[in-house]
Amino acid sequence: MNIKNKNKNMLLILSIPIVFLVICIGTSIGSSDINITDIISIIGNKLFNLPLIEGIKPKDVSIIWVIRLPRVLLAFLVGAALAVSGAVVQSILKNPLASPYTLGVSSGASLGVGIYIILGITIPIVGNLALPFIGFLSGVITVFFVIMFSTKVDKGLSNSTIILAGMVFSLFTNAILTTISALFSEDIKTITMWQMGSFAMKGWSYVLVGLPFFVIGILIVLRYCREMDILTFGEEQAKSVGVETKKVKKILFIATAILTGSAVALSGTIGFIDLITPHVVRKTLGSEHKLVIPMCIVFGGSLMVITDLIARTIASPSELPVGAITALIGAPFFGYLYFNKRSR
After folding, report:
1. Other C-beta atoms lying within 10 Å of the C-beta of residue 204
2. Do residues 287 and 232 make contact, with C-beta atoms less than 8 angstroms apart?
3. What percent of the residues of the chain are helix, what percent strand, and what percent coil, each to the nearest 5?
4. Cα separation of 249 and 231, whole Å?
5. pLDDT, tens only, 197-208
6. What is the distance between the alpha carbons of residues 210 and 129, in angstroms, rounded to a whole number?
7. Helix (H) or strand (E) holding 243
């Protein structure tokens, strides 16, 4: 048992340099390549006031610190948040094809943003962050409605009721958004571009806004790792050992809403990261959530950074939507997962 724990701890420790390397690679490659040594020197200079390596141009400092590093860090946070949310939802609903978007977060956020764009209102306090703020608020409100509706219909809060309620609310909000877009066709392009997902032109303010939501959501999830392990054996078994299944489900769904809502709000709708990552992690490392959740952060965040790197370099100087790249990777994976399960 001790050997197992040591191996897990070693794996978590080894993941730290891997994350650092992925972030450095994502920051290094672009229209003007900057080597990793220079990047480390620039970060050291900005954070700890260390002297820069000789030969680093002021232009390179601005490219790394102002444009690329916040973008890469935001991509990592969004990928990690979606991956953890996917692991939690699949665990609670005991459905390998479930995702946080099943709860209606994405469609709710899209509707809120669509209404905000069409009305053209301004929110003085939040300024440029009004769009992600509205998206987050709309996504979280939608999840609360799904939970409330599910509780009213089924006091036991069964998994099938939650899935169906999420689908109903998603379809309903998407229908409203489609109707509004048809009536205000001049705003369709702006709404569509937001829905495709992108990290372009998003600086430190976005990272600083998203970080508290990420930390709060992750801490809640880590607190309930044991309960999620027990829930995988079924709700009856969980109740027999003293797990308050209904309460635990609600708390974890709120954590999922915080993580997914903030991720969608900051980047737009980016699918399949939440579906792919938990499966890969569980397949390679087992299903114990104390290991699954941290490794979902590492793998999900790293996968999003690499996907964003592909999106902004494959058709340079143009930039592809990140959501399109994740869909190209994730759709075949989803198909394989579904049909492989059916054949079994």
Report:
1. 14
2. yes
3. 80, 0, 20
4. 10
5. 889 888 898 999
6. 11
7. none
**CA atoms within 13 A of residue 300's CA, in its CB half-sphere:** 32
What residue type is 14 in one-letter code? L
Structure tokens at 317: 């100087």
> Measured between alpha carbons, how far is 272 from 4 in angstroms, rounded to an integer?
31
pLDDT tens, 204-244?
A: 989 998 899 899 999 999 999 999 988 888 778 888 888 88
Report the distance separating Cα 52 and Cα 196, nearest Å: 38
- DSSP states along 43-66: HHHHHH-PPPPTT--HHHHHIIII
pLDDT at position 109 over 90: no
Angstrom distance (rounded) from CA 56 to CA 63: 12
Dihedral (CA of 77, 323, 299, 102) sign: positive
pTM of the model: 0.89
d(CA 50, CA 62): 16
Asked if residue 292 has pLDDT above 90, the reply is yes
Cβ–Cβ < 8 Å for 29, 309:
yes
CB pairs under 8 A, 24+ apart, for 336-340?
A: 337/96, 337/97, 337/275, 337/279, 338/97
Residue 49, token pair as written in the block: 């006031």
Q: Which of 201, 203, 199, 207 is nearest to 321 (CA)?
A: 199
d(CA 88, CA 171): 23
Query: Is 41 within 8 Å of 26 (Cβ atoms)?
Result: no
8 CB-side CA count, 13 A? 16
The neighbour count for residue 226, using CB atoms within 10 Å, is 12
> Would you state the torsion angle of the CA atoms of residues 204, 208, 214, 219, taken in this order, to the nearest 10 degrees?
140
| DSSP 8-class letter at 287 | S
The span from the CA of 271 to the CA of 331, in Å, is 9
